[in-house]
Design brief:
The protein is mainly β. The protein has 2 helices and 21 strands.
Length: 279
């Protein structure tokens, strides 16, 4: 088992196998579970839902108190923290129970912790920065099918790669100033355009988050003020339509193109049923 942490909803980071805490290899936490319904030579309703997992923990008195305070606050406020492996793979979680097995005076306790794993899978964030550029290319941008608007020529074109075998949820953070930002992502014959009809002033940012629960579009001002712009996102006919602002990224390499007038960050979320054993 690699390094394991509980990160509270307020960002408090608590080691579960160091600094007074030890949970060993945590095999039940690392296990992989699909839910399904069996039929006649078939399975249906296949999904990865929230589940419970248990951890056997040895905690010093101070570590047990610190974990209890953070876990109970998150439960009471219905604001999940998250379980992290090596600060890389994580999923949203609550620590709902601590059943004490042994007490070693005022020094330490042995307890079984019940963790509610809410996402059904482990995620890893991968971010790439794309910067504004004024360099023009008169040859223009050519896509495999027509859009209802045209893209001007630009050298603002790069690529993004999704590891693994399943699509990855995407969060786009666009930095102002820009009006009606558009980003096109292409792989093979398929191109999707991420577009929001909104003005993003200088010093502000627009966050198009297809990874959140629920999905969201927010305009965040210079001083942190937040405006809901969910209704301004173009959705086409939904996923796969080519103009869906929450379209997941497909596995493998995709090209990224935009008009070059603004910068943005692409953060995608690789998913695995278990944190990889070999890394």
């Amino acid at each position: 088992m690699h390094r394991l942490y509980y990160v509270s909803s307020t960002g408090e980071r608590i080691s579960l196998d160091g600094e007074g805490a030890f949970v060993g290899t945590a095999p039940k936490l690392r296990s992989r579970v699909w839910t399904y319904e069996l039929g006649w030579r078939s399975a249906s309703g296949i999904s990865r839902g929230a589940r419970e997992a248990t951890l056997n923990a040895f905690l010093t008195a101070s570590a047990a108190d610190r974990l209890r305070e953070q876990a109970d606050r998150d439960m009471a406020s219905a604001a999940p923290g998250r379980i992290e492996v090596d600060g890389e793979w994580y999923q949203r979680a609550f620590i709902a129970k601590s059943e004490t097995d042994a007490v070693y005076g005022r020094r330490a306790v042995k307890a079984e912790l019940t963790v509610l794993l809410l996402d059904g899978a482990w995620r890893r964030e991968v971010s790439a920065e794309f910067y504004a550029t004024e360099t023009e290319d008169p040859s223009g941008l050519d896509y495999p099918h027509d859009f209802e608007y045209d893209y001007g020529g630009s050298t603002a074109s790069r690529s993004v790669t999704v590891d693994g075998l399943v699509p990855a949820d995407l969060k786009l953070t666009v930095y102002g100033p820009v009006t009606n930002p558009r980003v096109a992502v292409s792989q093979g014959a398929f191109t999707n355009v991420y577009e929001v009809d909104v003005e993003v002033p200088g010093g502000s940012r627009l966050v198009i988050d297809g990874s959140s629960y629920p999905k969201s579009i927010q305009l965040i001002g210079t001083y942190g003020e937040v405006e809901d712009k969910f209704a301004s996102g173009l959705r086409g006919e939904g996923a796969g339509s080519g103009s869906y602002c929450f379209e997941p990224l497909r596995p493998g390499a995709s090209s990224v193109a935009w008009d070059g007038s603004f910068g943005f960050t692409m953060t995608h979320y690789q998913e695995e049923g278990e944190p990889p054993w070999s890394s």
